[in-house]
Amino acid sequence: MLDGKRLVHAHCYRADEILQLMRLAEEFGFKIATLQHVLEGYKVADEIAAHGAGASTFSDWWGYKAEAYDAIPYNAALMSERGVVVSINSDSDEEMRHLNQEAAKAIRWGGMDEIAALAMVTLNPARQLRIDDRVGSIEVGKDADLVLYDGPPLSVRSVVRKTWIDGDLYFDLQADRARQKTIEAMKARLEPPDKPEDGEQPASGQDEPQSEQARTTGLRAGLALDDALNCHTSHSCREEGR
Amino acid sequence: MTRKTLLRTPLLAALLAASLLTTQLGAETLVLDGGTVHPISSEPFVVRVVIDGGKIVALGPQATAPAGSRHLDVEGLHVYPGMFDALGQIGMVEINAVSATVDTTEMGAYNPQLHATTAVHPASEVIPVTRAEGITQAVSAPNAGNEGVILGQAGLLHLSGWTVEEMAIQPSLAMIIAWPEIQTRSFDFATFSRRDVPFSEAEEKAETAQNELRDWMDAARQYEHAVAAGSKRLERDLKLEAMIPMIRGEEPVVIMANAARDIKAAVAFAEQYHLHMILGGGRDAWKVKTLLAEKNIPVILGSVQSLPEEEDDPYDRPFRTAGELAAAGITVAFGSGAGGGFGPGGPHAARTLPLEAGMATAYGLSEQEALRTLTLNPARIFGVDGQLGSIEVGKIANLVVTDASPLGIATQVRHVIIAGREVSTDNKHRALYERYRARP
């Protein structure tokens, strides 16, 4: 780390601690590669740019703890304007599913242009991780990590149709829908529809363990099916010779 | 509710002064000219909304502008009804992790007498941040905490006003019940780990709590009979008295439940006591949509953007729920506090409810219906559609003027009108942005 061979990505929130960390690094002769979360980065954007650190922030979370009380949704746009390489992170296994929309929020709050917003979830994080020679943009020689949307990628209405990683198709909406239909049919067979309601009492407890059991069985069957179907769409089965 | 210390900073004071100055313009006669008006209750039309005394008094190309009225040029812009946060804790939470700034929960499990709006802090920074995105009114409701069952009464508030009295549209809008759910899994924050309990144990715990709830309902029913019969020996009980409008079916009750088995049990409970039920949360509502449609029970959903519950659910299960419920004929709305999930969210995220409804349009919800989930649907659900939810003569003039559909991410809100007055869209976030953007 001190030799500059190990990149430092540092978790931080407030402007004072951001400044403190950068000065500490400078004292020891190394740089912070990327400041993570960096919610008050907009207050010290010039200092971050001068230090040469990147910033990886949330789009619009605020107020959940004291050090997030001055978080503003303009943070990404403001840091970008001051010359910081900015990316948007999720810190959440849910929010990562729509990072394209999170990036788009910098258009609403801060007037960022569309290409710059998209770069915050493509090329900029690649630059921050020093892997932009391999990923982050569509160029000859780069890894074929691609996504096919049915509309503009920064719209709330756009849905992912296909995703490729290293040139292999990992997600196909049509295949996924077909797979879900099969799972639904299987679950319907294993878990018969509810008996007519008597209108008074909640479902009797005695029935529950049975339906839990049925659900688990259905789940296993579904997962087995998942493996089988993946073999037609993903490279992992081919590699494993399944 | 206990009154807690709320943060006071010079910035807050300055912002307040700035934003409330605009609020204080007084009832004005305002004419919106030149834009496309989207009434929601009918087809869009071009030009002219006339507002006087806080209400919409005339609409359409032929509407005449009274002498002395202020003209607001909205040429090229779009006028929509102001949007709802249909269930949440706006004004009751400043910083989630700082307990002194959170006033959402009362001690004890049964507090039907409680009015959540008494805990609302009109100077909360969340209010101007939220209204700047076109949300003009919010249902502020108590939260369950660890033990709450009958949580108290939610109120409907304008997101503008010097005091909570000025903000109040209806201080007593609905009773809130947290259905005692069968919870086999719980998250222990002390050890940051999941705890599983056997089903039989979880069920017994839930049934005990449900029986206690039924005892309260029976007591309230008897109390109501005694009151109706004019009993002179009746000792006044403020808790039971507060339950009378709900028992009579005059006041709606939001029952918070998520798992299908709990929703079904809550519906049976509401039937037993002839309650006017609204389902809050409703994570699994799609599984019981036939039942909900048949019983005419509306649903206030939490976040569209959440993870599927079951391992074998489709990846987009929560994205589709609103569309599937609407297609089944169920009236759907969204509330920032209806999800009850872990992590950032709640009142601070109320401003993005329109974007989440927008996302649902990619998964089966029509654009028209998505707009209704934010406007006319919550108004109907709570029985205030005579006053709010659409742009019609006689309704309260809560309006938002945008440059495009409120469902789009890049859309900009240009004007916000609350109770017939144009209110400031300045807020803490914009002030910080402008201050630091101007840093030399």
- CATH homologous superfamily placement of the largest domain in chain A: Metal-dependent hydrolases
Ranges of chain A where pLDDT stays below 50 over 5 or more residues in a row are: 196-242
Task: Give the CATH class of the largest domain in chain A.
Answer: Alpha Beta
CATH topology of one domain in chain B: TIM Barrel
Here the CATH topology of the largest domain in chain A equals TIM Barrel
The biggest sheet of chain A, with number of strands, parallel, antiparallel or mixed sense and barrel status, is: 4 strands, parallel
What can you see in these coordinates?
The complex is a heterodimer of chains A (242) and B (440). Chain A folds into 2 domains: 9-139, Metal-dependent hydrolases (TIM Barrel, Alpha-Beta Barrel); 171-240, no CATH class. Chain A is 41% helix and 12% strand. Chain A is built from 9 helices and 7 strands. Chain B has a domain at 83-384: TIM Barrel (Alpha-Beta Barrel), CATH 3.20.20. Chain B has 12 helices and 20 strands. Chain B has helices at 10-23, 126-131, 164-167, 199-228, 238-247, 260-272, 289-294, 317-327, 353-360, 367-374, 376-381, 428-437, and strands spanning 30-33, 36-37, 45-46, 49-52, 55-59, 70-73, 78-81, 83-88, 135-140, 150-158, 168-178, 185-188, 193-196, 253-257, 277-281, 299-301, 332-334, 399-402, 413-418, 421-423. In chain B, strands 8-9-10-11-14-15-16-17 form an 8-stranded mixed sheet. The relative contact order of chain B is 0.17. Chains A and B meet through helix 4, helix 7 and helix 8 of A and helix 4, helix 6, helix 9 and helix 12 of B.
SSE blueprint and pairings:
The complex is a heterodimer of chains A (242) and B (440).
Chain A (H helix, E strand, L loop, with lengths): L8 E4 L2 H13 L6 E4 L7 H7 L2 E4 L17 H7 L4 E3 L10 H10 L5 H6 L3 H6 L17 E4 L10 E6 L2 E5 H18 L16 H27 L1 H6 L2
Parallel strand pairs in A: 1-2, 2-3, 3-4
Antiparallel strand pairs in A: 5-6, 6-7
Chain B lengths: L9 H14 L6 E4 L2 E2 L7 E2 L2 E4 L2 E5 L10 E4 L4 E4 L1 E6 L37 H6 L3 E6 L9 E9 L5 H4 E11 L6 E4 L4 E4 L2 H30 L9 H10 L5 E5 L2 H13 L4 E5 L7 H6 L4 E3 L15 H11 L4 E3 L18 H8 L6 H8 L1 H6 L17 E4 L10 E6 L2 E3 L4 H10 L3
Parallel strand pairs in B: 1-6, 2-7, 8-9, 11-14, 14-15, 15-16, 16-17
Antiparallel strand pairs in B: 1-4, 2-3, 4-5, 7-18, 9-10, 10-11, 12-13, 18-19, 19-20
Helix pairs in contact in B: 4-5, 9-10
